[in-house]
Structures are given as structure tokens and as C-alpha cells.
């Protein structure tokens, strides 16, 4: 990793809920918390805790030199709201296939 750049992934004991337009998209008591230098904390949710039937795959892909290539999904009215790393870099291997949302509620 680049000097001064740090990423940590840890289990979070918090409850994470994702709601958009009154619809629950995900709810989990076992998210992973990813902290990355210069970025907001992000919760990665196991696919079993996500309403995958409400997500539509997007053609969008982005590359992060620290995490790898992300794939995206959309929901009605919100393009590319969700992403995951199907083949993450070794330092963040724990987030493999977990989904991350731009906005989550944490309790």
C-alpha cells in the first residue's frame, strides 16, 4: 500500500439497515466495517442480508488500486447505488461479494 494510505476491515457489532423510498433493501447484524484513509466509513453487508431481487446489475465498473474492481447495481430511481468487489485485493479479501450502499442507517 502507498505510504500513509490505510484500509482496515473488521466485523461490526452494529445493526445496519438500508431503506430507500420506504422499501428495506438490506438489513444486517453482521456487516463488515471498512475504514479507508480519505474516505467515509463503509459497511459491507453479506448478500444473504440484502434484497437481491430488488437490484438490477449495472454495466458500471470502477477500479481502486487498494480494493480492486467493483461491480455495481441499481434500484428504481437510483443508478449505481450498490457495489461489491467480486475479486478484491488480498488486503481486503473479507469484503468479497459483500454489498455496500451509499447511504445506510446504523443503530
UniProtKB/TrEMBL annotation:
Pfam families: NTP_transf_9 (PF04248). Residues 16-103 form the DUF427 domain. InterPro entries: DUF427, DUF427_sf. Coiled coil: none annotated. It comes from the Bacteria. PANTHER family: CONSERVED PROTEIN, DUF427 DOMAIN PROTEIN (AFU_ORTHOLOGUE AFUA_3G02220). This is DUF427 domain-containing protein. It comes from Streptomyces levis. The lineage of its organism: Bacteria, Bacillati, Actinomycetota, Actinomycetes, Kitasatosporales.
Amino acid at each position: 500500500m502507498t505510504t500513509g494510505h490505510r484500509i482496515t476491515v473488521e466485523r461490526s457489532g452494529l445493526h445496519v439497515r438500508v431503506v430507500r423510498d420506504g422499501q428495506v433493501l438490506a438489513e444486517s447484524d453482521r456487516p463488515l466495517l471498512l475504514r479507508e484513509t480519505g474516505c467515509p466509513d463503509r459497511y459491507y453487508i453479506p448478500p444473504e442480508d440484502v434484497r437481491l431481487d430488488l437490484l438490477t446489475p449495472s454495466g458500471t465498473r470502477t477500479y481502486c488500486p487498494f480494493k480492486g474492481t467493483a461491480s455495481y447495481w441499481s434500484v428504481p430511481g437510483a443508478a449505481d447505488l450498490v457495489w461489491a468487489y467480486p475479486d478484491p485485493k488480498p488486503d481486503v479479501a473479507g469484503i468479497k461479494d459483500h454489498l455496500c450502499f451509499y447511504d445506510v442507517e446504523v443503530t
